[in-house]
Amino acid sequence: MHYESTMGEINLKRRKMLVAGATVVGGIGLAAVAIPFIKYMEPSDRARNAGAPVTVDISKLEPGQQITVGWRGQPIWFLRRTDEMLKTMTLEKHLAKLRDPDSEVETQQPAYAKNATRSIHKEHLVVIGICTHLGCVPTYRPDMAPEDLGPEWDGGYFCPCHGSRFDLAGRVYQGVPAPTNLVVPPYRYITDTVIEIGVSAKAS
């Protein structure tokens, strides 16, 4: 009887040890599964950076040249306008072709870009390169009166999807599907040649 009792105690201890061991192993296994899952739930670097400001050096941008930089999944255009471009943009006969030459729709640009050139420094245009009609990306067409766009074309942006037209300040022409001017994003100059997109000039 004493032998059976001793064996029972040994079996009971062994069972407790096995249960405890299984619990520990199970806990480790759960942790191994949980850690990747928790990491997956954290925002990725891409998601974290999607809305982050973007800094762009425009020091090598030549007159008449444009570059494109991505911000929040959108193309941002940086155009260095020539003196001739700026002159054409202000002519009365050109302004008469535009639907909203004075950029009266407040959501089209920050207050500091609501001017004749829609920019902080008149030489540089900074604009979101997405047509305000259905979201296509217009093409940069700085050439004057090309055969395919006609004699009234003063240089600007042409949307190949539905024919909307914008001038070199991103202002929409009359009689096209796009209802409003291209949008100017919030931006500021960190130096004369470094622009930060996503931070308003009011914060500088």
CATH structural architecture of the largest domain: 3-layer Sandwich
For the record, give the distance between the C-alpha atoms at the N and C termini, rounded to a whole number: 90 Å
Percentage of helical residues?
25-40%
**Mean of residue pLDDT values:** 82
Q: Describe it for me?
A:
The protein is of the alpha+beta class and 204 residues long. It has two domains: 2-42; 52-203, Rieske [2Fe-2S] iron-sulphur domain (Rieske Iron-sulfur Protein, 3-layer Sandwich), CATH 2.102.10. Helices cover 28% and strands 19% of the residues. The chain contains four helices and nine strands; from the N terminus they run ααβββααββββββ. It has helices at 2-41, 45-50, 83-89, 92-95, and strands at residues 54-57, 66-71, 74-80, 124-128, 139-141, 156-158, 165-167, 187-189, 194-197. A hairpin with a 4-residue loop joins strand 8 (187-189) and strand 9. The chain starts with a helix and ends in a 7-residue tail after the last strand. Residues 2-7 and 18-45 have low confidence and may be disordered.
